[in-house]
Amino acid sequence: MNTNDDYLRELQERIRRLEFDKLPHEVAIRFIEESIEKGSKLRSEFKKAENEAENILKILLDAGEILKVNFNRDDINKLSSIPSAGIDGSNRVKGGKLGIYYIMLIAGIAKFLEGVHGTCNVEFSDVKIEEYFDPTGEKVHAIAEDLMLELETKAIHHFVNRDAPKNKKTILLLDGPIIDPPRPPVLKSSLSYIEYRCKAIRSCIDRNPPITVVGFNKRIMGNLYKNYVEELTKRKLTNIHSDFNLVSLLFYNLLREEYELQGEIKSIYYTKPIKVDNVPVAKDYEKYGEIEIYSTFSVFSLRHPPFRVDIPVVAGTDLSEVNKYAEEIIKFIKVSTFPGLRYPIQIVTIHEKVSLRDGAAQLIYNEILTRATTTTEDILSYLAAHIADEF
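Above: the chain sequence. Below: its structure as C-alpha cells.
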C-alpha cells in the first residue's frame, strides 16, 4: 500500500517537472525570481504565526485546555484487543451529455473483530451506479456526496445489526465527521436523512455494551477551535486564520519541546473536548436524535498531520464523562496508528479499499457508452466523439 503511494507521488513529481520544463526559459526564470521573493515574505508570516501560537499555548496549558496522557503496557494490551471497524465510501461523477450523469458509489466496512492485530475482513456493503438528470450540472456533485453518505450511514446500521460482537464493547471509526454533510442534504428533505443518521448513531450509543462511534477527520476544516480559543482568551488571533493552522502550530511547539528535552515523544497531547455548535444542522441532531457532538484535536508526532475527532454522546451527558470518552478514544487511535501509517489502520484500510480512482470511473463510463452505441449508434457516436475530446 505504501509502496504504491510512493510510486504515485514519484510519478506525479516527474509529471510536474516535465510540465515546468515546457515553460519558455525566460518565463521560468521570472517565476523562480518571484517565488524567492514571495517565499521570504511567507517565512516572515510563518514566524509571526509561530510566536502568536507560543503565547496562546502557555495560556491554554495553564487553563488545562490541552491534556496530556501517557501509555503503559496494560493500556496497550487492553486497547489493542477491543473489536473495531472502519467505515468509508467514495463516489465519482461521469457523463453530462443530454443532462444525464452517472454517479458511481462504493461503501464498505473494514472489520477488526479480533482486535487491531487480528484478522481484517473487508465487506463492500454497497456498490452501485445511480443515474441522475441534471440539465445544468449544478446539483449533481452535491447529490453524489449525499448518496454516498446515505450508503455510509446504511453501513453503520449493517455493522451494528450484523457484525458487531454482541457481548463486547466495540469501537467504530467513521472516515469523516459525525455531522456529514454539514449542510442540509440536496436530494432528500433534511429531516429524513438526519433522522436516519441519528438513528444509526443512537443504535451504537444505546446498545449494551455500547459501540463507541467516532468521526475521524483527516482534514481539519473551519474555525471551531479558533473561535473557542479567542472566546476563552479574550483576544483576537491576527496571524492564525483557521483551526488547521492553530492546531498545527500548537502541537508542533509541544512535541518539539518534548523531543528536545527527552530525545523522543512518549506523551499524547490533545485538546479538551468542545461542543460542536458552529454547524447549523448540529441543532437538528440534538433535536431529533438527542445527540450532542464534541470535538478534540491531536497529533502524535512531528511527522504526522494533526487530526480532529468527533465524539457523539447523548444530549446532557456530563462533561466529565465526555472527557473520559475522549481520553480512551485518543489512546485507541494511537494504538491503531501503526508505525509508518499516518492514520489508524481501520481508516487506512477501508479508505484504500473503497477509493474509486478517476481513471477507473472513466473506464466504467466508457463501458456504458459502448453498450449504448450498439443500439443508437448514429446519435451516440456523435456524442461519444465529443466526450472523448474532453479527456
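The chain has a mean pLDDT of 90.
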